[in-house]
From TrEMBL:
Gene Ontology MF annotations: transmembrane transporter activity
Protein name (record): General substrate transporter
The entry's keywords: Cell membrane, Membrane, Transmembrane, Transmembrane helix, Transport
Xref: Pfam families: MFS_1
GO CC terms in record: plasma membrane
Protein's cellular compartments: Cell membrane
Membrane-spanning intervals of the chain: 40-63, 75-97, 103-122, 131-153, 165-182, 211-232, 244-265, 277-296, 302-324, 336-356, 362-384
SUPFAM superfamilies registered for this protein in UniProt: MFS general substrate transporter
Length: 402
């Protein structure tokens, strides 16, 4: 009975985590429409992504530990409610201000989900193989973003009332998710100290602290590219790949997000550090192919390269998260996930803000080269760390032999 309750709670928390991110991607295929009909600029779209990331970071560093005090269930339900509320705001977008407000609410929702729901997933993961919970946490958001982007793109292109229908459907999805969460098993008892927990804290247990510097480089490099695709995916489809279709814009965005679940599955076959190293190097190589295909204007090659970069992204993220969350105590989980996702969101927000500023002076192709340099730097850090650890182990073995 205990295992059955945990299994159902695991499924409910996992699906709700994805649903929150479905909501956050639903507007992206509409960006082209917002530009052409409502006069929004590249700067407005980039700022909307930055506001989204800021909302997420605020939720992570200030409210990220509330689920340790109020329980996983109420904070998780609040995150899904905020996602639904953001969709209500998006029903009437005709200027930048409601777009920014809606994206901020989505950021808050995803930030809360990234701690409360992610911790709940791990709490209930004793009925599944060990690699599945890190895979859900690393790739659940990517999967949700993919479903939201692709589904919305298809509805915008072929459905009635394209500016409202995607959001009505997602509102229904959030209601269903809340119903699932009400049936799920609470795994954290209520305790005092909620107000004290609002003080930002970046403390990590020793295992996580040791793994964090290398993992942080991979989080920043991969999430930064995701932020670029969120802000400029429709523009890339239109300007570099010569397609004005909302579906093409959705596929551009989804091509980097959807395959991450494949990479997460592959990561489960290797040790955490091997998955981290191989994933980061492959991500960098395929990102180079993405940039090359952008330069040549080859849509099919671009999508193929993005798919392989997405697979590598899932592999490196799952490996990096495993290095930080393996064998940590239940009460440390929410805080560790807050640090992981705060790092990831800041890593996406800052480059996106810079890219938005540069978009008036540089082409999207030139801006994308900056993301390639960021990935190269992260790869060098991971490779050098591996070389240093191998050398240290060799020296230790030599000392033992002597």
């Amino acid at each position: 009975m205990h295992n059955q309750a945990n299994r159902l709670s695991f499924i409910g928390a996992s699906l709700s985590l994805m649903a929150t991110y479905v909501a956050s991607a639903t507007a992206i295929p509409l960006y082209g429409l917002y530009q052409s009909v409502d006069g929004l600029t590249y700067s407005d779209l980039a700022l909307s992504s930055v506001v989204y990331f800021i909302g997420a970071v605020i939720a992570l560093i200030i409210f990220g530990r509330l689920s340790n005090h109020f329980g996983r269930k109420p904070i998780s339900i609040l995150s899904v409610l905020l996602a639904g509320l953001s969709c209500l705001v998006f029903l009437n977008i005709h200027s930048a201000y409601p777009l920014l407000a809606g994206r901020f609410l989505q950021g808050l929702a995803c930030g809360l989900a990234s701690t409360a729901l992610a911790a709940w997933v791990v709490d209930c993961a004793d009925t599944v193989p060990r690699w599945i919970a890190p895979a859900v946490i690393s790739c659940g958001p990517m999967t949700g973003l993919t479903i939201g982007g692709l589904g919305s793109g298809l509805l915008v292109e072929y459905g009635p009332i394209p500016r409202q229908l995607p959001f009505f459907i997602v509102i229904g999805l959030t209601i269903a998710s809340i119903a699932l969460l009400f049936q799920a098993k609470e795994t954290m008892d209520r305790k005092n100290g909620a107000l004290k927990s609002l003080k930002p804290s970046f403390s990590l247990p020793p295992i996580s602290r040791k793994a964090y510097p290398i993992a942080a480089c991979t989080f920043v490099a991969t999430w930064a590219l995701g932020g670029f695709f969120q802000a400029f995916g429709p523009a890339m489809a239109r300007e570099q790949l010569h397609s004005t279709s909302a579906v093409a814009a959705a596929f551009v965005f989804a091509s980097i997000m959807a395959p991450s679940s494949i990479g997460a599955s592959l990561a489960g076959r290797y040790s955490a550090k091997t998955a981290q190293l191989a994933g980061m190097v492959l991500f960098t190589l395929f990102l180079g192919c993405v940039i090359l295909s952008l330069n040549l204007g080859w849509l099919s090659t671009f999508l193929l390269a993005s798919i392989f970069a997405g697979i590598a992204q899932g592999m490196v993220l799952t490996g990096s998260i495993r290095t930080m969350v393996s064998d940590i105590a239940t009460e440390d989980r929410a805080n560790v996930f807050a640090v992981i996702y705060a790092t990831s969101y800041l890593g996406a927000a800052i480059p996106t803000l810079i890219a938005g500023r540069l978009s008036t002076s540089f082409s999207l192709l030139e801006i994308s080269c900056g993301y390639g340099l960021l990935a190269i730097f992260a790869s060098c850090v991971v490779v050098l760390s591996k070389v240093r650890n191998t050398s240290s182990m060799a020296d230790s073995n030599t000392s033992l032999i002597k």
